[in-house]
Automatic annotation (TrEMBL):
It comes from Natrinema pallidum. Residues 14-126 form the HotDog ACOT-type domain. PANTHER family: ACYL COENZYME A THIOESTER HYDROLASE, CYTOSOLIC ACYL COENZYME A THIOESTER HYDROLASE. GO terms for molecular function: long-chain fatty acyl-CoA hydrolase activity. This is Acyl-CoA thioesterase. GO terms for cellular component: cytosol. Keywords: Hydrolase, Plasmid. Coiled coil: none annotated. GO terms for biological process: acyl-CoA metabolic process; fatty acid catabolic process.
Length: 161
């Protein structure tokens, strides 16, 4: 899905939206049969990078990751869904909210499992930081997602200070 960019150099939040799924297999579990934190972080980083790449239509690198909240365990066999979207931009930076859910279809349960904020920098062909499109949220749903992410990140930063 290519970014929806206008002539003025903007892209929509929706153009960055990324969702990917995994099944938690034994190689990604600890001795309790739950997800290794490193595996979850790996999936989150990939999802965030895809969202940033879709948004900027450029190669991207991870610049920062905020504190990660592991909310609930992910059990062996769970379907893990990772979602991400760009909610704020700078000159060469894109901030991406990434959320993880664990689904147990047999129990008809879905739990929020983890959440964090990542920053990615867009690179040009010579691997130098390059400008990214401005974020455009043309619908109420996109504005609401952006505002939720901004509020959540601001609240988290206040609590960590």
């Amino acid at each position: 899905m290519p970014p929806q960019q206008s002539a003025s150099g903007t892209a929509t939040l929706e153009s960055s939206h990324t969702e990917m799924s995994e099944i938690l297999m034994p190689n990604d579990t600890n001795n309790l049969g739950r997800a290794l934190g490193g595996s979850v972080l790996h999936w989150m980083d990939i999802c965030g990078a895809i969202a940033a790449r879709r948004f900027s239509n450029r190669q991207v690198v991870t610049a920062a990751m905020d504190h990660v909240d592991f909310i609930a365990p992910i059990e062996l066999g769970d379907i893990v869904t990772i979602t991400g979207y760009v909610f704020e931009t700078g000159r060469t930076r894109m901030d991406v909210k990434v959320d993880v859910q664990a689904e147990r279809p047999t129990a008809e349960e879905t739990d929020d499992a983890a959440t964090s904020f990542f920053s990615f920098v867009a690179l040009d062909a010579s691997e130098t930081p390059t400008p990214v499109p401005a974020l455009h949220c043309p619908t109420e749903a996109q504005r609401e997602l952006r505002d939720i992410a901004l509020e959540h990140r601001q609240k988290r930063r206040r609590n960590l200070a």
